[in-house]
Every structure is written in C-alpha cells, then in structure tokens.
Amino acid sequence: MSTYFIGTGNVGAEPEFKAFPQGNEAPRKMLRLNVRFDNPIPSKEGYQDRGGFWAAVEIWHQDVTNNVKLIH
C-alpha cells in the first residue's frame, strides 16, 4: 500500500539504492531511506516540538536519479 505524504525532515543514514532488472527493459530503480520528521505544535512562544517520528521512505523509478543528487 502506498501513502502520499509531503514533509520536511532529516535523513538518518546513508540512503540505499537498488536497481531491479526487468529483462530487456530498463531496470526499475528504488531509493530507500529513513527520515526523521519533527512535530512542531503552535504555542504562545512560537512552536514547541512535541516529538516527531521516523519514517521508512521508498522512492521509485525516474525520481530516484534526481533525489540521489539532492540527498548527497
């Protein structure tokens, strides 16, 4: 099951790149990384961090090449 999510976070470790062969077609590319997302809650003083969460993120296909350049 896939979930669409937009957030800004910090990559926790070196991303893992994989390519899966598909016979005579170009291989399917996948980039796997762990990202920490903060949970800022508005308060009288601005924002207060109420704990965040880690998410395992997988990026597939042509987006992988563009994202590898951005992450390094």
From TrEMBL:
Q: Which SUPFAM superfamilies match?
A: Nucleic acid-binding proteins
InterPro entries for this protein: NA-bd_OB-fold
Cross-referenced Gene3D superfamilies: Nucleic acid-binding proteins (2.40.50.140)
Q: Which domain of life is it from?
A: Bacteria
Q: What is this protein called?
A: Single-stranded DNA-binding protein
